[in-house]
Amino acid sequence: MLEGLIRLDRAAAMPLTEQIYRQIREGVRGGRIGGGLRLPSSRALAGALGVSRNTVTAAYELLQAEGVVSVGRGAAPAVMAPAATPRPAATAAATMHLAERGTRLASDRYDGAYLLGSGAFRPGRPDPALFPRDLWARSLRRATRVLGGDSLLYEHREGLPALRAVLADYLAGSRGVVAMPEQIHVVPSVQSALAMIATCLADPGDNVWIEDPGYLGARAAFAGLALDPLPVDGEGADPTAMKRTPRLIYVTPSHQYPTGARMSLPRRIALLAAARRHRAIVIEDDYDSEFLWQGRPIPALQALGASEVIYLGTVAKSLLPGLRLAYLILPPGLCAAFRPVQSNLGLLANVHAQAAFADFIDGGHYRAHLKRISTVYEGRALTLAAAIRAACGDAVVVPTPQGGLQMTVGFGEAVDDRAVAGALAAEGYGPSILSALCLGARRSGLVVGFAEASAADAARFAAALARALSTARPTRHE
Question: How many other CB atoms are found less than 10 A from the CB of residue 42?
């Protein structure tokens, strides 16, 4: 009888014991094998299925451990579970609903910005092929050997002391950041840091200056707050245009997302002055600062205003987002309050990844890796920009890329960038829609990633973009 219910796949990665165990268990739960039924002996079932008796015995033992069958000495196994698992009433789910804040958080923050769930030339994605696997594996092995005691339990929730110390030195040298290790908190992502900051420092309805166009993840983190568009031009965010009093100010001054603009020194000074005047906190997302190619490096905004600025950084672009490693640097007056907050929210980063990253930096591997991949990304950016200009001509505006993993391709105001993105999506391309990143004045264009683009890929994309532009209808504005 069981022989007809069990189908073994001998080429599958799943062991035969587990296949037998799972299929009998699902047969009992689904009612196909009734409660109280006697099953074949291990010898009989093994012969019928063409497997060893030990294989069937092990499967029966797993079922017995879960209470699905009972196996008595000298007796055939008997089914103990009910014929079918009771299902909850259909009306129960209908009474469940999210709170207002939960409803906002449950929406896809990228909804409207992408027409393709994934696709080539999607912005913000590093090239996994450039990840230094062998060097990272060595650092990870060393970390596994060294870690022990409190580090593997519940201590150091704000981050391993070794990583915080190394980061303080590294960021001081590379970004001019002024911070003691105690000011650094290691978290799983910049997104989690933004959510923690918003929860701690702003109440519902408080005003947030947020770059326009800007990062949709920040908008999602600030759900429930009043978003005030902070206009961006060639000099970065312009605080002189703002009227309302902010509680928080979110900026990406080193490499503005998505325009790529670098905030000028006068704008930086004006922004910090506005923060002091309004007693606001500036959140500096040092986005893509690892990949800046044009001009002299400019220190982080935090170097000018350590008491007003919360600094955010991540390895999501420089290494891989899957490592789940980011960090924030708090002004000294906030450190004591944020320690229990981070613990209470459970925003804790994996200790082995932290230890490996500390070793990776300390051994000089991180600087060398950044230098290598920055050169690769610069070459790919310039190749793509040239290909788009050649294929599309005056129909697009493509500023010379200054850094990062993506570039903005601007269209005329009359061009429907959503229609262009739709035509590209039909060919497997996934850039984001620039107008969807705007809160105030609309800009038409695309944000195009280039991290994985070869010269041939760039040429094909440029040709597809030219075709899409030639067929796109003008957008209508009320």
Answer: 21
